[in-house]
Amino acid sequence: MKAVTGGDGQDTTSAALAHLAQNGALRLANLYLIGEADDPAALWLTDYESPLLWSAWGTFLTTVITRGTVTSKVGLEIESLDLVWSPQNIVLTQSIATASPYQLARYGFFDNKRVRVWRCLMPTPGDANTFGAFPLFGGFIGDATVTDGSIKFSVNSYLYVINQKVPSGVIEVTNTTASYSGGAPPNGFTVIPQFVIVTGSTPNLLICDQISPNPLGIPSGGAFDDASVVFNGGAGATLQGQYSIVGNNGLFTDGHGVNHASISLFSPLPQAPTPGVDTFYVTGTVPSFGGKSFPYVPSSQSAV
Q1: What is the DSSP string of 184-209?
Q2: What per-residue confidence (pLDDT) applies to 136?
Q3: Is the torsion defined by CA of 102, 63, 233, 153 positive or negative?
Q4: CA-CA distances (angstroms) from residue 110 to 94, 103, 113, 152, 271?
Q5: Quick one: the chain helix, strand, coil %, rounded to 5?
Q6: What is the pLDDT of residues 93-141, one digit of tens each?
Q7: Chain-centroid distance, C-alpha 4
Q8: Which is nearest to 291 in space by CA: 175, 171, 181, 169?
Q9: Domain regions of the chain by residue span
Q10: What are phi and psi of 253, to 5 degrees?
């Protein structure tokens, strides 16, 4: 039997086994955490008939979710787990913060999200704290497929990383991405410029005004070649975390003769940004989400 952790963080394996030996049964439930525990957008789900509080982690809310079979094997063979979730929120909105999970799945919002699955042991209905739960599966979402009334997640186990081929261009002296870092000033800037959206923007074209640094101005055409835009969060933000590589930038003059900056995007946003509300910054490199890539791996020739 796997080690069981109670709501107080203590090992309850022996107590759970003793209860099972005496009573012959335990009530079971699956607990799912999609995302990181400190992420406000993380999903805390259970297939039990009521919400379950497991104090070691948090409260898991009732939903319609099923999982495939979890297989245990010796060695480094890669496993995957299918989750099928049927969220009740089907209302379409124009904000990432309030969007239906079906919308978010189509946007790729859940791609590469961490998934943790526990098996909860309850001595009495709804008591997820006395014995707690044991880990059943862990990994990252490799694919999210939206069907009529459900979202199917294909979750690759943590061992999936050993199946990934490492291109020679990311090894030590040939590592061209080792010098990349998210949030680098674009060419011609000493700090990262911030912009606010103005009227006329579309999912592919941003009409905007620079709000920092001073002095404010309109970047010259081509100044953002090879750069990326990344949308900020904050009150009312509708595109928090969305990003795209810049196709081109230039000048836009509105109907009142006022000049603004224009930035065209290679990848369209889920929806048009909100004027006066959405802000973003321009970084000189594609966001790396984790920093340098394989900076200390020796070249294959010297590793033999």
Answers
A1: PPPTT-SS--EEEE-TT--SSEEEEE
A2: 92
A3: negative
A4: 18, 10, 5, 11, 18
A5: 10, 35, 55
A6: 888 888 899 999 998 899 989 999 999 999 999 999 999 999 999 999 9
A7: 28
A8: 181
A9: 13-163, 194-283
A10: -110, 120
Structure tokens at 148: 């009529």
Question: pLDDT at position 71, please?
Answer: 74
Alpha-carbon torsion angle 91, 94, 99, 105, nearest 10: 110
Token pair for residue 229? 């835009």
- Where are any strands of DSSP class E within 57-109? 58-62, 65-67, 80-85
Question: Helix or strand or coil: residue 47?
Answer: coil
Per the structure block, which two tokens stand in for 149? 């009334």
* Pairing mode of beta strands 194-197, 205-212: antiparallel
Residues in the chain: 304
Q: Apex CA 299: angle with CA 297 and CA 301, to 5°?
A: 145
Q: Does residue 38 have a pLDDT over 70?
A: yes
pLDDT tops 50 at residue 301: no
Q: Which residue has the tokens 């098996």?
A: 119
